[in-house]
Amino acid sequence: MRAIAARALGAGLGSAIRLFDSADGSDGKPFSEPDILRPRVDSRRFGWVHYGVMIPDLPEPHRFFSMMSLVGATGSLAFDNDDALVAPPRRNASVVAGTAASHPAHFGNYAVGDTFVSSPDGSLVQFGDDVRLTGRFPRYELVGRLGGVDVALTLTNTPTVSWFFRSPVYKHFGLLTEYEGTFTCDGHTIAAEGLCSFEYGAMPSPYLVRSTPLSPAAKVPLDLFVYQIADLDADTQILLSHYTIGGRPLMTTAILRTRTGYGTRFRDVKFDVLELRDEPEPTPYGIPMPVPRRTRFLVKDSGGRPWLDLEATMDTPFTFGLGTGFVTGFAYSATWRGTGITGRGYFEYIDRRSAG
Predict the structure, then answer these.
(1) How far apart are CA 35 and CA 314, in angstroms?
(2) Alpha-carbon gap, residue 356 to 348, rounded angstroms
(3) 227 partner at 20 to 30 Å CA-CA among 54, 319, 326, 338?
């Protein structure tokens, strides 16, 4: 009965999100809402906020960088990590951050107004003494000490924005961003520069009116979350995602963006897990999670012709802390517009389809 109810709720939520979502209509337009980039810890409209900085390709031994955070719990099955809360859900902030060299990286939870501090205008977002993001659009500084890796980055946002969702109640986007900085581990410093994604999301949650965690059965049944970022060349980045709610596909997307363009969204996209790892990944909440060894995104153009066929091999340990799931890095081989290419990418994965 719970599975049937979850599927029904998933279908309803999916229809509602699509009905009011105007993300498609934002394709090809520059970013125009810099004032939205605020932590909103006392908002009566938004119950959670997400800040993210993801670099898909770094020199060895780092491979990738991730700073993925949630300020406030979401009320969803995939992202609510109730066992890790150090404050009521609305007043809890969490972050997973690090590189391949910092595995198991840094995962922490903080109490808003105590160990998590921020400024109302978003010019400061700080998770204890571990991660600090300062600045305002279009320029930020990110510093952190994460699992033995010291990170110092300058981030310069471009006007190129990729909207995942855009509605009066849910706004979630990624800005194509140029980074430069250093990564220091075991006394050795590596300088790097290139493209990354600077991401932000804000949405209401049940915890605007509730101070205790919902039961798993009462949460929004977002039960599969897949997100990959890869640079196809020095000027071109692809965002690939796949989500299900109550076991029903919500969306599978591919968004291309370049330094000189404002983004293109592909509608004919297919995702597959080609192979799972031999053993599920353990989790702190006691439910091991099957994770992929190999995945594939197939993207076709408007004429139905293969435009990108990207196979990713997860060659880096999975780091826990993305909600109830993991982040990692991958090596990829792909055929892009008929030409073979290889590279590295960044991966987020949560699979709660067997959670109950």
Answers:
(1) 37
(2) 22
(3) 338
